[in-house]
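Structural prep section.
Before we set up the soaks we want a predicted structure of the protein with adenosine-5'-triphosphate in place, mainly to decide which crystallisation condition to try first. Input record follows.
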Amino acid sequence: MAIRRQSVVLGVLLAPVTLFLGFFFLLPLLIIALYSFLSPGLYGGVEWTFYHWNYGRIFGWADGINEIFEPIYLQILWRSLSFAALTVVLTLILCYPVAFWVSRLSERWRLVFMFLITLPFFSSLIVRLYAWLLILKPTGLFNTALLSLGVISEPLEILYTPTAVVLGMVYVMVPFMFLPLYSAVDNLDRAQVEASLDLGANRVQTFLKVILPQTLPGIMGGAVIVFIPSVGNFVVPDVLGGAKGLMIGNLVEQQFLSARNWPFGSALSMIIMAVVLTVLLISVTRARKAGGHA
Amino acid sequence: MAALLEISAARREFVTPEGGRLAALDGVDLTVGANEFVTLLGPSGCGKTTLLRAISGFEVLDNGTMRLDGMDLTALPPFRRPVNTVFQSYALFGHMTVARNVGYALEVAGVGKASRDAQVAEALEKVGLAGMGGRRPGQLSGGQRQRVALARAIIAKPRLLLLDEPLSALDRNLRQQMQLELKTLQHSLGIAFIFVTHDQEEALTMSDRIVVMRAGRIEQIGSPRDIYRHPKNRFVAEFIGETNLFPVTVDHVAGNIALGRTADGVELQLPATGRSVGEQVTAILRPADFTLGTAGIPGQVTREVYLGSDLYIFVQPKAGGPEIRVIARDGAGAAEGAAVHLAHDPTSVHVLEAA
Ligand SMILES: Nc1ncnc2c1ncn2[C@@H]1O[C@H](COP(=O)(O)OP(=O)(O)OP(=O)(O)O)[C@@H](O)[C@H]1O
Ligand SMILES: [Mg+2]
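Run finished without errors. Recording the tokens verbatim:
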């Protein structure tokens, strides 16, 4: 009886959020999934006929008449995945040592640092990316500084290259990596670190056997949180990337807004979705395995 | 006894949050013999943990030297010192099994798996945890965790084991059992122990020698009996066990007994050796040093505390002054309000030179 009653209460409490998510999240998702199997209308929209060539175009079984297989889509997918992976690695390298440093600061300086790391959230992403554009362009701050220092004789072509995209994504994603990492590092049991040293483990062994395993949940969390939005990111490559910096998110955007091929855009979206779900699934099962004892 | 650890003039200062300086160790000299059980005892904040951390290498001394087996420890990082610690919080590695925790020192020293497994099994056996190797620390009780911490610290056969209040988190029964086990273990291992405790009873029952500390300094080092019977000063006397302190003036000396009198007029008999008339000294008598009789200090029982076979009573001397604490046999006629006389053996009185 008690259990029944509990589940009724739970149901009532969860109903609003379930309805909201169902209507504004799940429903659009189903629509996209459906559209990805329909044929494109002549002037946008969809024709209600089953049509798997959208995926054929991407993966190579296109009929060659209506739709042509272009390896470029897989290349762009691969590029998106590697850019996202690179962003994860770079933000991790940047944030991991800093997390240790911040956790040792006094209370006051820690708060100051936390404020600084969340400061970007107070202004628009587009504005901040345009600032990067001004910094990186041939006559921008970066090149002018290097030129006047005599380090280079000609401006470096950074803007509209993959480098600029990765740089921009790292910039955008740093706070998302830092926060879970910091929380893991801050929760690190210092007594265990001392116990390891006391038992004869040198600093490298202590890092590998105690510090790393204990901060692994933070690393995994940060990696997932950074990887997922990075794969589908289209704002950063839009502003900073040229043709070579195009990512799958840009393709989706183009299909919906300029090419007006909704089914194809939907198919591309479903691929991003599949990647994200796979990553989440792997990280959740791994976390469950690691925390299996608790 | 050959000196295993020699500490001389150890000094460690901390900067307090208020900006001042605080000497957590203020010129500490200490030698510990091989296979000796030494206990550090003292009030909170007197520097016990700091001293242990300096020995294990986690605090760097500002001054002074530290030698182990004649080898200078000063420049050695913690992981090079043949000293292991049982931490107060146990500090077990939560992400490892009990067996891996226990074998950690061997693992990082590069001992092969087969030999390691054998030694881990042996160590677990020794602390009464045979067969528990597969568990995680989170699945153990407090007492079991304590044993894992102990097994982990002794497996590499350190020359010296440091224990920072290892028993303080355990309940009384488990604690007494662990006290015995620790003592037995220390004998069978042949390792010297430096043991920190707040509990003076624990210190008295377990130690070969007790080091009483106060504010970064050592007040007295001695055997438990020494410390209990012959405290060097009021602080030690009051810190170890219940004590009655009587500031007295020596009234006269006759044979081997001197008579001392407090300002209130309570009269006590002291050993005469070294006493001279008119001298001001402090006489120390433990609660068990008094016997109830017909002669002695007259007074009235104001309060009684039942201890089982014994009775703990507070006696207000007729002459005045602070109450005297006495342990009497139950049934000795010392009910609340009763008039009693407190007799004592002059030779059992310990005299402090200062009043
Ligand atoms: N890292 C530190 N920074 C500043 N002061 C410290 C530090 N560590 C210890 N102290 C101070 O040094 C003194 C001695 O500390 P310590 O931890 O050695 O005391 P303790 O005898 O172990 O006390 P307890 O019985 O409460 O554990 C204390 O006054 C403490 O506040
Ligand atoms: Mg302490």
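Observations: Residues 53-293 of chain A form a domain with the MetI-like fold fold (CATH 1.10.3720.10).
Flagged for discussion at group meeting.
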